[in-house]
Amino acid sequence: MEGDYASPLMSGEKSGSLRSLESRFNHTMKIAEFRMKQYLDNVDKIYLPFTLEELTNAKNDSTIKKKLQEICNHLRQSNVPSRPFSVQYLDKNGEPIFYYLGERIEGKRPKEIHLWEDENGNNNFHRQFKKRTMVDLLKARNRGKKILHDGIAVRLSLSLLFSLKFYIKSSIYRTIC
After folding, report:
1. Within 10 Å of residue 148's Cβ, how many Cβ atoms?
2. Residue 163 lies in a domain
3. Up-side HSE of residue 85: CA atoms within 13 Å toward CB?
4. Which residues span the domain enclosing 91?
5. How many structural domains comprise the chain?
6. Which of 43, 88, 93, 161 is the most buried (most CB within 10 A)?
7. What's the predicted TM-score (pTM) here?
8. Is residue 16 situated within a structural domain?
């Protein structure tokens, strides 16, 4: 399947035949599943120092809200590098909090980083940026490394929308008629 990103809307260009709507939809879904598996298996995982439940409950706790706001303000400073690399942010139990679909270098082993903060406010939050900044991405690109994009390709997303639209219409038509 690697490299098979031809538009599912165009079918048998070589044979001149059109693929069925269901077949186009299924092909598009297989591509999306393959890309998601590649993403889940090959990007950094950053474990945050709280659980999803604690984060949910934080909206009612002004002390936690203030602490999270301080962290956000620190990470928004101009001297904090941006992170263009794909990443999965997980809570300390491994439950997903946020997935970022960005870039990754083909063949580079993903890292697992456990972020922490002690009662004195010391933390290791800077570790999430180590060798994962825009400068690192540009260096890799200049060295000829293959850069993969985990975001949804415009061509693929449009194909998925058209395939889904036609699939739904055809399913409704088959149900009614």
Report:
1. 18
2. yes
3. 29
4. 21-176
5. 1
6. 43
7. 0.68
8. no
